[in-house]
Amino acid sequence: MPFIIKIGNIDLSGRIDRVDQSVDGKIIVTDYKLSSAPGFEKQGTEVFQIPIYMSFFEGACVEGKYGFIKGAKVSHVIRNIDEIGKIKGARNQLSTEEFKDKLQESLDNALKVIYLMYNGIFDKWDDVDSRISDLARS
């Protein structure tokens, strides 16, 4: 599904691999990976893809996850347990407040990286390079 999201005064476009919507309007986004993906601790600080996808839906998205093609597995990356409950074995299950804070922090950090890109700051020895490539992939 193609999308455009405004972050600051920048329009960021991309394509979401899968969007599921329940009858009550709750949305879950899935990004498919071949075999591995970054975990929760990197979401919104080093990688932005899932949080940006989720933010596009302006509060309707309750979970972002990775689906792995090899091994047919799922990794629940960010999940709002107040909206859809806990599931056994899933880490990173957040209350609504924690969930909203995580998404906002992710957008704030993405905006910082976008402005670094805009100003031509591309120091390959700095961790900003991995963040730039992640935003470019989103």
Automatic annotation (TrEMBL):
<keyword id="KW-0067">ATP-binding</keyword>
<dbReference type="GO" id="GO:0004386">
    <property type="term" value="F:helicase activity"/>
</dbReference>
<dbReference type="Pfam" id="PF12705">
    <property type="entry name" value="PDDEXK_1"/>
</dbReference>
<dbReference type="InterPro" id="IPR011604">
    <property type="entry name" value="PDDEXK-like_dom_sf"/>
</dbReference>
<dbReference type="GO" id="GO:0016787">
    <property type="term" value="F:hydrolase activity"/>
</dbReference>
<dbReference type="GO" id="GO:0003677">
    <property type="term" value="F:DNA binding"/>
</dbReference>
<dbReference type="GO" id="GO:0005524">
    <property type="term" value="F:ATP binding"/>
</dbReference>
<keyword id="KW-0378">Hydrolase</keyword>
<keyword id="KW-0227">DNA damage</keyword>
<keyword id="KW-0238">DNA-binding</keyword>
<dbReference type="GO" id="GO:0006281">
    <property type="term" value="P:DNA repair"/>
</dbReference>
<keyword id="KW-0347">Helicase</keyword>
<dbReference type="InterPro" id="IPR038726">
    <property type="entry name" value="PDDEXK_AddAB-type"/>
</dbReference>
<keyword id="KW-0234">DNA repair</keyword>
<protein>
    <recommendedName>
        <fullName>PD-(D/E)XK endonuclease-like domain-containing protein</fullName>
    </recommendedName>
</protein>
<keyword id="KW-0547">Nucleotide-binding</keyword>
<feature type="domain" description="PD-(D/E)XK endonuclease-like">
    <location>
        <begin position="9"/>
        <end position="110"/>
    </location>
</feature>
